[in-house]
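Final report, results section. Input specification for complex C-07:
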Amino acid sequence: MSHTKDSALSLALAALLGGAIVSAEAAQPPAEQAASVNPAESFIQQHDTDGDGKVSQAEALAPQEARFKQLDADGDGFITSDEFSKAFAAEVPAEVRQKMKERGMPDPGETFIKELDKNGDGKVARAEAMQPSVEGFNQMDTGGDGFATRDEVEAFFRKMLEQARQMQQQGQPPAK
Ligand SMILES: [Ca+2]
Ligand SMILES: [Ca+2]
Ligand SMILES: [Ca+2]
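Structure output:
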């Protein structure tokens, strides 16, 4: 029985991911157009689902929220190493996973838990999974009213760009 469930899940994952990848590619402008595309503008367009011209915390976190639900296969509110590994296996081609193993890279499920499991219970709760996105949003929402306005989003992207530039000037590769 669990086999059938897993196959259905993998299919659903693949479909969702396929959609996500397509939209990510569509959002990526061709190189010659890149300079004319405002990253703040496209961020607002992608996240402002109620169309009020600013991005609320819930709107900003929606993609992460959907991803959490997707990874929490049994819906108990926690992502286990096993759940993450299964999703990873469904998303990443076998030959890529084989290469990662050959290079001695740590188990992706374990890495995922290690990164996000702050209370050390060995699994990732919703709040733990959302934490990096919440912090990211708070950095953007400098006024702290729970909404990232156009000005705030633009300032945030300017700052990011400036930091990337500084890193390049210091001869360091930008963080990946
Ligand atoms: Ca909005
Ligand atoms: Ca779970
Ligand atoms: Ca935890």
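Confidence is low (pLDDT under 50) at residues 1-27. The longest helix spans residues 2-27. This concludes the modelling results for the funded period.
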